[in-house]
Amino acid sequence: MTNRKAFTEVSSTQQLKNSTLNQQKAIKEIEGLFQISDEKLDILMRGVGQEMRNGLNVPETEEKQNDLKMIPSFVAGYPTGNEKGTYLALEISGVDIYVCQVRLKGEGGKLAINQYQYKIPDHLTAGDNMSTLIDYIADCVADFQHRVGSSQEMVYAMGISLGFAVSQTGLDKGYIVALEHGFEYPNAIGSDIVDLFHKGFQAKGLAVKVVAMANDSVCTLLAHAYQHPSTRIGIVHSAGTNCAYYDKVSNLGTFLSQHKDDIPHHSDMIINTEWCNISSKYLPGNKFDEMVDIESNNKGIHAFEKMTTGMYLGELVRLILVYFADIKVLSFDIDDEECLLRIPYQFDTSYMYVCEADEDLLEGTRVVLEEMCRTGETTPIDREIVKKVCELVGHRAAVLLGASIAGVVEYMVAYGIGLDPQGDGFAISISGEVYKDYSSFHPRVCETLKTLIPDEVAAKLSVGIVKHSRIVGAAIVAMMAEKINRNIDML
Fold first, then answer.
1. DSSP string, 458-479
2. pTM of the full predicted structure?
3. How confident is the model over 395-410, as pLDDT tens digits?
4. CATH of domain 76-229+466-482
5. Which member of 7, 11, 29, 69 has the greatest number of CB atoms within 10 A?
6. How far is the C-alpha of 196 from the C-alpha of 464, rounded, in Å?
């Protein structure tokens, strides 16, 4: 194993000018809590690989014992970048609806995109009948088709990417398990989501057929793969996190026994890992992580998400700043009635981007503290400490993400997936606001990944940041669905 000290340790106290011994001691304490030892990284990497193997082969009755759910996407095979056609995509993300028309031009991955965004009104987030919400979504699709001048002579294939929890039983079949993001329709649970959409579209006279649904990480993978056919891993890292990758159908023990005639055994399929569920037994948590977990609405689960994603990173920083204020490491009074730092989740993760990128007089950090968090006047050393806390929390998050990716890569190499010894290797696609907007995140993840895997493997990997991933990916899922159905018909 190569030397990891360069990225697992962040020496900070020497950079704090004019700091007191008490301040240096406090920063040293946080450094110790947020640094990750070689042993802990090995535990995480091995754990990811073991959970992948368990999730693929464990009997269905024992599935809940696995951290990684390893859900088959039913998307088999690879896009080439030469496919052509016009496809629709629908994404529901929180209260946002995105409708997109993607024209695939082929020619090595060329495409054209037309997209509109709609908002779900507050009065449609809850009710007695889910069809009310579906009717509104159908209206949005009808409006979109009118705007872009869709042909009335053809039926458009549509792929959908949903923010709801769906138990997928086929490429175009799945049942709603839970409604999230504040939605409440009691009759939705157990409903076939595709059937609901078909009925809603038919009622509006829309010539649209939902041919596939996919998780956002699957869409991220395929959005990149159409233009870069060597893509084998797709990751979403934003408010939450997830990872999808290609595996051999022959490795999918439980799935293979249940779907012997659905998918060719020699093909490869995208698997949704649901790695947000990586538990604390594989992760180097500390007292601040425990505090985040205790105050969360999903206590005891999603430890990986709570240590790495945009939903929680700012809160980790806030808790450390409260601790520092209480032991008089910071000069400002957070108990002042104007100050927001005593209020949970009032230090937004986006503030970390500003503080870490700040230089010289740390004016951006001053604005974050004094104007956004209303701390009152801050000193230069206050700002240096806050910047350093952001670096430590953000650095650990990137290292954990990089180590988890390394665990997936290590599994794929061991099982001969996507890495031809004679070939050029494969690409990893990553999307999400944290990954895109946090300037130091990408280089830290790449450095971690490069350091944790053998040089000969690292030399064959590339990491790309994907834009418009979910919605474009959903359209490409629709294209892949038609391609898969044609191949099955030929068997």
1. HTTEEEEE-SSHHHHHHHHHHH
2. 0.91
3. 999 999 999 999 999 9
4. 3.30.420.40
5. 7
6. 35
